[in-house]
Write a structure and sequence with these properties.
The complex is a heterodimer.
Chain A (H helix, E strand, L loop, with lengths): L7 H24 L14 E6 L14 H11 L4 E2 L5 E2 L3 E6 L4 E6 L13 H12 L18 E6 L2 E5 L5 H8 L8 H6 L2 E2 L2 E2 L13 E7 L3 E6 L12 E6 L3 H9 L5 E2 L4 H9 L3 E16 L9 H10 L2 H8 L4 E3 L22 H11 L4 E7 L7 H13 L4 E7 L2 H8 L10 E7 L5 H9 L11 H12 L3 H18 L2 E14 L19
Helix pairs in contact in A: 8-10, 13-14, 14-15
Chain B lengths: L2 H29 L4 H5 L6 H10 L6 H13 L5 E2 L4 E2 H36 L4 H15 L2 H15 L12 H11 L3 H37 L2 H8 L4 H31 L1 H6 L5 H10 L3 H29 L2 H4 L1
Antiparallel strand pairs in B: 1-2
Classes of the chains: A alpha+beta, B mainly alpha.
Organism (chain A): Halosolutus amylolyticus
Protein name (chain A): ABC transporter substrate-binding protein
Pfam family, one (chain A): SBP_bac_5
Chain lengths: 528, 329
């Protein structure tokens, strides 16, 4: 650059000043606003809850997803209080009595108001049930699967609803209608914009429940802000402002918790647990969930048609070892088709414990020595699923007389294979997870052994007969006994390699007084 | 060739590209393993529910019928229906677009503010420490994966130092601006700025490095040309020569790259949006993949494809307008 002027000093000065101004501006921008989630005095009158999944629809009767219910329950409130032991207690429904002719009458409180000021009446409750089970009335709802025994509902008068379930046992119906029923106002739904029967909307106006909190801001996919509903019939709300938002990454949720931007995060991965443990002011809280992980074996396909072979697979796998090594200890070995706390759980059953000699001997007995099997597993669908599958397959492969390899494949392929008949040999051995959302063993067992269900993978007439008997047993104790008996029978028949019930792991602000529940539900009224 | 004819030609090419994208998304769904219904409904769904969804989506029809109906819907702007979200795909996509555009523009601004002065300094101080520094910065910037940079920015500046939030977008720019313009309330605008700085840096770093290099090489080319010597001989100040004459000529290719990169930024914000929970198209794309929401996934890909084509046509048009030799060639 000969010949050109070099006003270097001036330009440098300008650049320095510009840089300093830039940094100062950034600092000013960064510092000029307080963190919106924290109070100056440190008092917790507002709370932020960050979930891995956010609601995608404002319709409370459409999907069957736990994180959705955590949001909807504060706004729409459950009809019943579901206790941590999964029993139901009075709430909006004050009393319920089976009539003895295939229905139960629910008595509704007469002082319940929707957020728009209208009264809740029995016909709203009946309409809500119809909406979930009949896609002519509402959307094609996933919740219909949890209400399998419910045939319909009808208002008898202003405060009485009759729920019909035909030949099904009252206690089975109770577990189903007791867990669903986020009531919507029929007239209000009629005024809403809907698509395929589901309420749509992108503002606070798309919500109208009877719960202790009402929606003041809603930005789809981003956040929903709640404030107490002044005319709520029950106890005063604990928090002045509640915000639910989403971060799909476990590490992102943990960073937000560390930075004090949120007070509670769900679904912390075991790899991130130590980060929370080592940070000040936050901690891990966990509880064994109702979600179990297992390896399905279709008994219409060789070698899984042999009970001895299926038992051998159970003896080959070291469940406790997988929990310790892959899940960081955050799980419990399965002893039966579902985890503890579910109605029908059999406390007398023990998990299969690894016994390679016994496993090899059972394989010999089965006549399938030398079998070569493939375990199909998804990756990223469940907690460390690929590692769990690989380890389980390695354990099986240790047997002298069985070769086992893993085939990781997209979940749709697994789901597709699971939906094929029980004797379809496309994907006869696969890893899958199942959450028992109704709290009743029927929900855990029926799909797998019911010949009418798309997911039937295990055909056994005796087991299915016992299940059918339990469905119709009106005495609750006798029904529980039948389900426990069925669980014991199925443990021996081993339709699955029973793996584990995984823990729900939360990162929590230490100041928050709250304990996780087995059903993974977050109720704000349980927090202080 | 007249400009109008040139634009029509580019438009027709663009339509062909969009048709290709639409067709590919259909083919990918068709050849993907598994029953599409199983990807849409909950695994607990009954056989009756599965059949209902199959019928509603026309999945009982042969592929050529499905493809024809699919094309018909696309032509009318109907991107399909997301059963996961219970509503049409188009509004879902449209409500996500502003966040992505905000991020892309912010990343571009970050890039320009840093890259152009750096490129000029680098060129005018060739083979001096400033040049080495700028070159090193370019190399590092181009080589650094933006997801890693994003995570590091969060850990250092959000978690440890605590001067920026870890992510999310609590307020939309247009809402914040409207509030500011109508009430002079600046709080929301500052909140937006505070939240976008880290994602914009993470997304814009590669772009910054690229523009720095382009500016440097462009400046070096121009500085050797006779008009520079002539202006120097006339006694014009060096600053004026570099920033008024040389940089202006250097800007033509940079503007072209800017336009093209804007399209890339829109499509490429996927990882950055995920790391920062920035609620744009990219984050939604990842969610739709995780939830196997095929209609939404197809809709987003088609929308990104269309955006890219439109931006390209606009940039080509502008470039042809500014430099008519492009048309003649």
């Amino acid at each position: 650059m000969q010949g050109a002027d070099k006003p270097t000093l001036d330009r440098r000065t300008v650049l320095k000043l510009s840089g300093a101004a830039g940094v100062t501006s950034l600092g000013a921008i960064a510092g000029c606003l307080d963190d919106p989630t924290s109070d100056e005095d440190g008092e917790t009158d507002e709370i932020v809850i960050t979930q891995g999944q956010f609601i995608e629809t404002p319709d409370p009767n459409d999907h069957i997803t736990g994180p959705y219910f955590n949001i909807f329950d504060q706004i729409y409130e459950p009809l019943f209080n579901v206790t941590p032991d999964l029993d139901i207690e009075s709430r909006v429904v004050t009393d319920w009595e089976p009539t003895g002719d295939g229905s139960t009458e629910l008595t509704i409180r007469d002082d319940v108001q929707f957020h728009n000021g209208e009264d809740l009446v029995a016909s709203d409750v009946a309409f809500t049930f119809q909406r979930m089970i009949d896609d002519e009335v509402g959307p094609i709802s996933d919740q219909a699967a949890g209400l399998g025994a419910i045939e319909g509902a009808e208002a008898i008068d202003e405060t009485t609803v009759r729920v019909d379930y035909g030949d099904a046992a009252p206690s089975l119906a109770e577990y189903q209608f007791g867990n669903y029923g986020r009531v919507v106002k029929e007239d209000w739904v009629g005024e809403q914009e809907t698509q395929e029967g589901a309420i749509i909307g992108d503002s606070a106006d798309a919500f109208n429940g009877t719960g202790p909190y009402q929606v003041v801001e809603y930005e789809p996919g981003v956040e929903i802000v709640l404030e107490p509903f002044d005319d709520y019939w029950g106890d005063e709300a604990t928090f002045n402002t509640v915000t639910f938002n989403e971060d799909t990454e476990s590490s992102g949720r943990v960073s937000a918790l560390q930075a004090g931007e949120t007070d509670l995060v769900d679904n912390v991965l075991p790899d991130d647990v130590s980060t929370v443990d080592e940070a000040d002011g936050i901690e891990i809280r966990n509880e064994t969930s109702l979600r179990s992980i297992f390896l399905v074996m279709k008994n219409g396909v060789e070698p899984f048609d042999s009970q001895e072979f299926r038992q051998a697979m159970n003896y080959a796998v070291d469940n406790q070892g997988i929990i310790e090594s892959i899940l960081g200890g955050f799980g419990e070995p399965m002893t039966q088709m579902h985890s503890e706390g579910i109605f029908g759980y059999n406390p007398d059953l023990d998990p299969y414990e690894q016994d390679l000699d016994e496993a090899e001997s059972l394989v010999e007995e089965s006549g399938y020595a030398g079998a070569e099997i493939t375990l199909h597993a998804p990756e990223g669908r469940y907690l460390n699923d690929a590692s769990v599958a690989q380890t389980a397959a390695d354990h099986i492969d240790q047997l002298e007389n069985v070769d086992c390899e893993v085939n990781l494949r997209p979940f749709p392929e697994i789901s597709d294979g699971a939906s094929q008949p029980y004797d379809d040999d496309g994907i006869p051995f696969f890893l899958i997870g199942w959450g028992v959302i109704t709290g009743d063993a029927d929900y855990a067992i029926d799909p797998w052994i019911n010949p009418d269900h798309p997911l039937e993978t295990f055909r056994d007439e005796d087991a299915f007969a016992t299940l059918e008997e339990s469905k119709a047993e009106s005495d609750s104790d006798a029904r529980e006994e039948l389900l426990q008996e069925l669980n014991a029978d199925l443990r021996d028949k081993a339709p699955f390699v029973f793996l584990h019930s995984q823990d729900s792991i939360y990162g929590v602000n230490q100041d928050l007084d709250w304990e996780p529940r087995r059903d993974e539900t977050i109720y704000l009224w349980d927090m202080e | 060739m007249p400009l109008g004819k040139f634009l029509i030609k580019r438009l027709l090419q663009g339509i062909f590209v969009i048709w290709g994208v639409v067709t590919l998304t259909f083919v990918f769904r068709a050849i993907s393993p598994g029953d599409p219904v199983n990807m849409i409904v909950d695994q607990r769904a009954s056989q009756a529910q599965r059949e209902q969804v199959r019928e509603n989506l026309g999945l009982n029809e042969p592929y050529y019928v499905q493809y024809y109906e699919y094309l018909q819907r696309m032509v009318t702007g109907d991107l399909g229906f997301s059963y996961r979200e219970g509503r049409d795909v188009l509004p879902i996509v449209l409500e996500r677009v502003p966040a992505t555009i905000e991020l892309a523009i912010a990343a571009t601004i970050v890039a320009l503010v840093i890259a152009i002065p750096l490129g000029v300094i680098s060129a005018t101080r060739r083979n001096e420490p400033a040049d080495y520094g700028a070159t090193l910065f370019s190399l590092v910037g181009i080589s650094t994966p933006n997801f890693w940079l994003g995570i590091m920015l969060i850990l250092v500046l959000a978690v440890e130092v605590g001067i920026f939030p870890t992510g999310r977008r609590p307020v939309a720019l247009h809402d914040a601006l409207w509030l500011f313009l109508t009430t002079f309330y600046v709080g929301d605008l500052l909140t937006w700025v505070k939240h976008i700085i880290l994602p914009a840096i993470a997304l814009g770093t590669y772009f910054t490095a690229l523009i720095t290099r382009l500016t440097r090489s462009g400046m070096l080319d121009e500085l050797g040309k006779p008009y520079v010597t002539a202006t120097e001989a006339k006694g014009l100040p060096g600053v004026l020569i570099r920033y008024k004459h040389v940089l202006r000529n250097t800007m033509i290719p940079i503007i072209t790259v800017l336009g093209l990169q804007l399209g890339t930024l829109i499509g490429g914000a996927v990882i950055t949006e995920t790391v920062f929970s920035w609620p744009g198209l990219g984050l939604k794309l990842i969610t739709s993949i995780r939830q196997l929401d095929w209609p939404l996934l197809q809709g987003i890909i088609i929308f990104i494809g269309i955006s890219f084509v439109v931006i390209n046509i606009v940039v080509d048009g502008l470039y042809a307008y500014l430099n008519p030799r492009v048309i003649e060639e």
